[in-house]
Amino acid sequence: MHTRGGTRIWPLAAALIALAAFPQVGGSFYIDLALTTVILSIFALSLELLVGRTGLVSFGHAAFFGIAAYATALLSPPASAASLAWLMPAVLLITALAAAAIGALCLRTRGVYFIMVTLAFAQMTYFVFHDTKFAGGSDGRYLYVKPVLAIGGVTLLDLGRPRTLYYAALGCLIVVYALLALLGRSRFGHALAGIRANEQRMRAVGFSTYPYKLAAFTLAGGLAGIAGFLLAVKDGFVTPEMLAWHQSGAVLLMLILGGIGTLRGAVLGAFVFVLMKEFFQSEALFGAFARHWQLPLGLAIIACVALMPNGVVALPTQLRRIRAPIPHAG
Amino acid sequence: MDIAVFLVQCLNAVQYGLLLFLVASGLTLIFGILGVINLAHGSFYMIGAYLAYALAPWAATHLGAGFFGALGIGLVLSIVFGYVLEWAFVSYLYQREHLQQVLMTYGLILVFEELRSIIVGDDVHGVAPPAWLSGSVALGGVMSYPVYRLFMSGVCIAIALALYAVLTRTRVGMAIRAGATNREMVQSLGVDIRLLYRIVFAAGVALAVLAGMIAAPVSSVYPGMGNQVLIVSFVVVVIGGIGSIRGALLASLLVGFVDTFGKVFIPQIASILVYLLMAVILLWRPEGLFRTG
Amino acid sequence: MIFNRAMLARAVLAAALCASAGGVAAQGKIKVGFMLPYTGTYAALGTAIENGFRLYVQEQGGKLGGRELEYFKVDDESEPSKAVDNINKLIKRDNVDVVVGTVHSGVVMAMAKVAKDTNTLLVVPNAGAEAVTGPMCAPNIFRSSFSNWQPGYAMGKVAGERGARKVATITWKYAAGDESVEGFKEGLKASGGEVVKDLTLPFPNVEFQALLTEIAATKPDAVYAFFAGGGAVKFVKDYAAAGLNKAIPLYGPGFLTDGTLEAQGAAAQGMLTTLHYADGLDVPKDKAFRADFNKAYKTTPDVYAVQGYDAAQMLGAGLAAVNGDVGRRGELVAAIEKARIDSPRGAFTLSKAHNPVQDIYLRKVVGTENRYEGVAVKALADPAKGCGM
After folding, report:
1. CB–CB of C211 and B220 under 8 A?
2. Where do the domains of chain B lie, and which CATH numbers do they carry?
3. Angstrom distance (rounded) from CA C250 to CA C40
4. CATH 1.10.150 given to domain A9-273
5. Where are the domains of chain A?
6. Grouped pLDDT means (10 residues each) for chain A, 330 residues
7. Shortest Cα distance from A241 to chain C (angstroms)?
8. How close B260 gets to chain C, by Cα (Å)?
9. A112–B279 CB contact, under 8 Å
């Protein structure tokens, strides 16, 4: 079974079913882990729009992840549950506005300078939350009561319950994935692909590329906001480290591990990243050495990027065609 | 604030800026000439500080001079280390895209941090400066300024002058400057580009390690010290212009002043100011203050 | 495709089942999870706490409430951002019965939230964040140490009584620093002085030079500083190196000089600090405790070891009342609440918010000791603002 674009549906469907069934069999720690992975998948997908589709390598994407998380914590009242109906749209709107503002400035630069200036803005936002008092400083801030969706006094969705949150996150993942898939086939998506391939040529043909890039940047920021919102609700606690450059680096790593240029690569990359971390930290496997888990992780990162530059998604192709040059998976 | 305090804060700013310059100069050379974004540069700084801590006792007993002995040995070790690292790892990064370089050197940071953890442990350590540099100079009334910080600034200035001399007066320096502007041309002119790259990388590593070693008595030796200095050095390199030593000097002094006086007047936004500075400069001059090539 | 997400999900499932099978506890042992800093600037404090805890258990013949203990450890690295994941490892993966931790106030804030949400028993052997016995207070959360406010308040009173009218404060910008300074301000105000300058720098930064210059420029009557661990060592040394200690007395809570005197050396001599523990206390339990600790670990104990020891005492009191049955949580909690802990610092009881009500001592640095000089404030209870219990 194939879609029009040639993607095979059944692996995606099977994975979806496995994810949906997981809470029935997994222990609470592993549901937490799966939930974190789903949230990171959404985060990675949002960056894929920028890096894979538009060719804009942003080293500051964690800023939007963190802004959304903080907005969620700051907007939620301390003693009662906020209503999902207005909290989530408000958080996403704030994040998108921040992305638009930051993007408007960053997109005036190109290449390695774009990478650096996105980093600069992310660091600025990080220090706003870390050094100032308004959001709790370096210790972070509580989200006291998790939001619910209630209509006329009837609670439909209580995100305070772990199962509900898990399925809500899974739902968001499906929506974001479908949205980006549809976007890829639209005129907007084709324009972005053109910008990635050769921006000068696009401009020569008469396309004004700046509005398209800004739109992509804003949308990517907003989608990262969904991930930030979900993580704030999951932990009930937000810290400035969510905006740190390590987080921006981690999400770039997820993309490259999975394979830049495909949506399933982004999700796969998030899974591989989380699994690698858990694997190396496992005391059952490594005993006392597990506390030095960053060493094998670092080596694994180097090996993966060096040997599989097109990610796990391209592994079968790479294995099959060792001699011939690898086509860019897009 | 009165004039004496102002002058002392200027001294603080210059000292911090010059130390940054030491780290950033290596980074800008590596970035500008080799074309490699090396996130592990902060790790070299950390390695330098831990070397100062680890070698000082040995040097004190075997060479008679604890601190300077460690400095000398550390310098030699770092040049060898840089040479080997370039040959074994960095040379494979030249053909890669920036994103891949970023991620591979990020992996390298993790490797270095854990190796340090395994070999030396995770404790915070102090390093004692040599006795004759441990005093303070009285500066008007209540305050005195540590002599060692003056020494640090002195060393940085000496290195800056030496760098200038090498780059402008020697053949190697000429090749380096040419390589920064046009790599292919230099290669076709018969310069052994591989050897040149190796020398430049080793020099960059040595500069960062030296910075870490002389900073150790002042900032303490602790895990994570590399990460803090890394991002700020990138800011300096980008503000100054990738590949430009002159730019790195000016930018690091600029950052030193913004950071120091920011901390004094409005501590909450001192760090924000540094990045704001970078953003403003990049939006005004998108390729830094002194572009090369 | 040979490697797809369905396979991945199945692999995760398999790993989950294997891991949960491997984690089945030995029957009959109480699971204690240590979440402490084993690396970083507070590493020495984490080790001291664990040693103190284990000493008490050893003295009880290796059992509390008649049952043996099984220990699990997680290094929290003093990182608030990893705190939720770290404590979840202990609670959800290792299924511990009680969590003991931690040192850093920001980390404990996250821990308290998770402990409150999952109703897990938590004993805090150091972190003085007011949230723990304030807005996040709960029947299942106890503290065996102090609240950041307590030693700060006591030092403020002493500083004012010694004639300080204009004081500058300096600390790391996080919960512990802010709350300690707040306590100091209250105590200072109560004895006639005021704080004229507040200086902060981000945790765990130790570049004090610019701020020391600021202090000199302000010319205060005294300086109050809160730092601990490696940072405390550096600050006291830098303060002396800048020549400030000759004209401007440096005050602080005991953390500034506890466990750090050997490294600080001459720079710390003569300093006055306030804390709920001191060297040379005329408390019989303290003499016995010190002898035992020295024999077991070959070093002199500090306040962190005492707090770890007392955490075990508190837990022991609760477990004894329920004969080791952690399921009888209500009785366990009531027993700890009513307990009078025979601590090396002097006996103490717990306030309604589960924080120790204790004497705060004035100490002076002599050699490598924080020698007891007198009682700064007697039976000081933390105000516990925001606690609903």
Report:
1. no
2. 3-284 (1.10.3470)
3. 26
4. no
5. 9-273
6. 57 81 81 93 96 93 96 89 90 97 90 86 91 82 85 79 89 95 93 90 88 96 96 92 92 92 92 91 79 89 89 82 62
7. 6
8. 7
9. no
